[in-house]
Design brief:
The chain is an alpha+beta fold. The chain contains 8 helices and 14 strands. Strands 1, 4, 5, 6, 7, 8, 9 and 14 form an 8-stranded mixed β-sheet that branches. A 4-stranded antiparallel β-sheet has the order 11-12-10-13. The chain has a two-stranded antiparallel ribbon with strand order 2-3. α2 crosses α3 (149-163). The protein is globular. The structure holds (3R)-3-hydroxy-3-methyl-5-(phosphonooxy)pentanoic acid (PMV). (3R)-3-hydroxy-3-methyl-5-(phosphonooxy)pentanoic acid is lined by residues 29, 32-34, 46, 123, 125, 164-166, 222, 226, 272, 313-314.
Length: 363
């Protein structure tokens, strides 16, 4: 699909009011997206596991209004008005209006909540933008019943991307690829697709224990980090590497070769952070406890031959990835050895999930 496919069709009569609710999961990238072109076009392709329990639930109530000159919405986060989220939503609505021209015809009450602890340091922008986009698509499909499932999901991903790049990988499960790649059919810079190749059963219920090392605000936002890839001395090599890592991952995912999977995933995580450390200005998002955890994971893997590895997103928290067959012993390891490195001893046990779901239908 091209951008034109996401322009709206003919709307039928606009309903007076209604309510839609969607729950969208977070995701964790195996091959990382870091660096972009306007507008939200990735400098390299990426792939992620869709998570399951880390998710955002969003409801939108919509009421037709008289004045169609501006956007009108209230925002409630975990039941309370949240003024500081409003500019981001306003900017998002402005960006997507071309594709959803009904937006100014309604007053929206947006209610959103996260399953993970408040300010856990887990990025809620991916699940949040995905849930919001799905709600808006749900409203659009009321206005245009010709929208089929394929268009619905692709356009939801397209809209989510315009809110926060990696959010486009939070619509579907369980492995989502985003970014045009010559060897991946139907891959696109505009939206995420379900990974089109064979994936071994070991990855179907792969586990992710998220060790919450630092729950505060990051010193450097992803937006700034992406910008710092412009003129970065290693950017071109890094982008190339991501393309070839997607090629390398194909037989690894098909065969379930965990040794090679671990090498590729950990190398991607450290390369992402190496890009941060070598940009100008340079910065470090890992904390001493991040490194302690990484070293303990390596030692544990070496001593017990358990196929556990780590990955990182743009922060200090560590995602520990492992097959479900070793869940019990890895959870004991997390509890006994790693929890001490987490803020307030907190970590979240998650696993690969099936993608976003519609919660109920209150139209
Ligand atoms: O979606 P953004 O702009 O917050 O960027 C996220 C980038 C990483 O999480 C670091 C990597 C990725 O591919 O998810």
């Amino acid at each position: 699909m091209t951008e034109k496919d996401f322009l709206p069709g003919a709307y039928q009569k606009l309903p007076k009011n209604g309510k839609v609710t969607w729950k969208a999961p977070s995701n964790i990238a195996l091959v990382k997206y870091w660096g972009k072109k306007p507008v939200q076009i990735p400098a390299n392709p990426s792939i992620s596991f869709t998570l399951d329990s880390c998710a955002t639930t969003t409801s939108i109530s919509f009421d037709k209004k008289e004045n169609k000159d501006e956007f009108s919405f209230d925002l409630l986060f975990e039941g309370k008005p949240k003024q500081d989220f409003k500019p981001k939503i306003q900017a998002f609505l402005e960006r997507v209006e071309k594709y959803l021209p009904f937006l100014k015809a309604y007053h929206f009450t947006i209610e959103t909540s996260n399953s993970f602890p408040h300010s856990s340091g887990i990025a809620s922008s991916a699940s949040g933008m995905a849930a919001l986009s799905l709600c808006l698509m749900d409203i659009e499909s009321l206005l245009d019943p010709t929208i089929d499932q394929t268009l619905f999901h692709a356009k939801a991903s397209f809209l989510a991307r315009l809110g926060s790049g990696s959010a486009c990988r939070s619509i579907k499960g369980s492995l989502v690829q985003w970014g045009a790649h010559p060897n991946i059919p139907n891959s696109s810079d505009l939206y995420g697709i379900e990974y089109p190749f064979d994936v071994g059963p070991v990855f179907e219920d792969y586990c992710d224990t998220i060790l919450l090392v630092h729950k505060g605000q990051k010193q450097v936002s992803s937006t700034v980090g992406h910008q710092l890839m412009h003129g970065h001395p290693f950017a071109q090599n890094r982008f190339q590497q991501a393309f070839s890592n997607l090629d390398r991952l194909k037989p690894i995912l098909a065969s379930g070769n965990l040794e090679e999977f671990i090498k590729l995933v950990e190398s991607e995580a450290l390369t992402l952070h190496a890009m941060m450390m070598t940009s100008m200005p340079y910065f470090i998002l890992m904390k001493p406890d991040t490194l302690q955890i990484i070293n303990k994971i390596w030692q544990y893997r070496e001593e017990t031959k358990t196929p556990v590895c780590f990955t990182l997103d743009a922060g200090a928290n560590v995602h520990m990835l492992y097959p479900s067959s070793v869940r019990e012993k890895v959870l004991a390891f997390a509890r006994e050895e790693l929890a001490v490195h987490c803020e307030n001893g907190q970590y979240i046990n998650d696993q690969v999930g099936e993608g976003a779901i519609k919660i109920n239908d209150q139209r």
